[in-house]
Amino acid sequence: MPPIINPILCTGCGLCINFCPMDVLRMNTEQNIATVVYPLECWHCGTCKYECESNSTSAISMDFPFLGKPYKRIKNLPND
Amino acid sequence: MDQTKEVETDVLVIGGAIAGCSAAIKASQLGVKVTLAEKAAIGRCGCAPWGLDHIWWYFPGGDMSLDDVIDAHMERLCRKLGNRGVLTKMWKESFNRARDLENLGIEFKFNGKYHWRTHHHLGVYNSLIYAGHNLTSALAKEVTRCNVNVLNRTMITRLIVDRDAVIGAIGLNTRNGEFIVIKSKATILATGGATRLYPSPTNRLFSTFAPPNDTGDGYSMAFRAGAQLINMEFPMAHPTTKGFRPSSTGGFKNAGASVIDAYGNPLEAGIDRSETSRLHKKAFEAGRYPFYVDPTGISKEKYDEVCVTSIKNEVPMYFDFLQFKGFDYRRDIVEIEDHEWDLRDGRSGLLIEDDGRTSLEGLFAAGDCTGGVFDAESMGAIVIAWNAGESAAQFAGKNVIFDIESNILEEEKKRIFNPLKLKEGVNWADINMGLQKIMKEYAGEIRHSAGLERCIENIFDLREEYIPRLVAKDFHELMRCLEVQSLCDTAEMIARAALARKESRFFHLRTDYPRTDDENWLKFVVLERKPNGDIRIFLKAPD
Questions:
Q1: pTM as predicted
Q2: Most CB atoms within 10 A, among B77, B195, B272, B273?
């Protein structure tokens, strides 16, 4: 699932668009907000998220709807 | 579409990740004019956009001699099928290049000390961990500081050959659609390997281990220009994490995690990746799956020190993903599987000398687009790129700019922009998926002559019937259309080389030639395209 961009937090700085290696983002020039234009081509590398954070904003988050849980619980911890 | 950008340069570097930036830096240090074209954007492209968690470095004065290390690499990783000259240069100069990287601000130390660990499949010599944090971006910063003319979002589509030498290249700006014409005195290919040839474990086209925009553009261009390529029959995979774009399990294993089957029994590992893969496959067929990496026995200290730092260095998104899903290393085990087959790591691609010279005059190459050294990885890329930058600069110093014939420019312009002209047609993704099916079935885990011949026929039909009908609605889609053409070329090379190798070796398993035949086949299968389109295939003993 491609990045989710919070339209309220996005400052329109364009770093994510600048650096996305798969070129999936473009600027919505009317609202000055980054948008995902090619969602199926997202590599889930997180570059957009980290570039956003490097600019002291956290407008980008991601989910990963593949497989469900990638791990299996085999022990219980004392607090479980 | 009618905008043309013309560039004249001493050295053109195609590809701006680890190899490309290293070559550009070295060439510019020698005072020549360098232009670097990158399909994405430098600083966040290639195989390691956020950093690396390991890098090989021969540390003089350690308990292994340089010869011992080279022998081990030849024996255990190349299994004797490797270019010893290139390998020697790589290990010999690794220490100096590591020093150069440190001077660029790449921090190899953790808490003030160098930390070594056994690379998960080399097993003999240690590699450095916490290495190369921000390697790609630090190299990109230096490229900018060196006043290299950087053309981001520029996909190079064709090398220009005149009188058997490369004199320039043609490309496309994937954002504004500019037609790019570059005349260069020397050209360095650093375009990486090729993925998206085989179905990914999730079947999602862009959830691959290697960057999904590594589509063998360099293989395709160099092949069409007449350069020699080797080892194209050896796409490979290794165990990675499941449920995400695949990530390496190295971080966990180096912290001491065990690899187990569904019943908690240890899973066998082979001497190299292909053997490990075969053992995993046997275990799968015996019903012992799912397979896991078990970190539950690791101390918190070790976990934080090795695992967390290691993973965060190389694939920070994977760590965020685990946390997002509620993972706790004290109670959870991580499921693993092999990622899709791909070509990379310096084993398959352009045949090079130890200074990056290819069989074509004026063309040099470094990094994953070169072949002959299994698991050359990042240190291989940096060392050879450094040498290629130097050789290319020297070559440029004795060379001149040549004009490019206008009919060649017209021909390539037509090929690039045709999908925009069509109102209806074929979608690039459908061709990609069709190609993956062809490769999986006919050039996959079970190979034989009838299947490989069918593979070549199918690729031919795909190319003749559907490539001319590709349709795109913008310049970004034009890039994807061009990428599937590179993929078709690369796929054909894989099939032809696999058909030529009449024995079984690594992941290349032929039911009609099941034996590994060192006596006759400890040689490279070389592919070379003649100007009339004929493909010459011959064997060459490694140096």
A1: 0.96
A2: B195
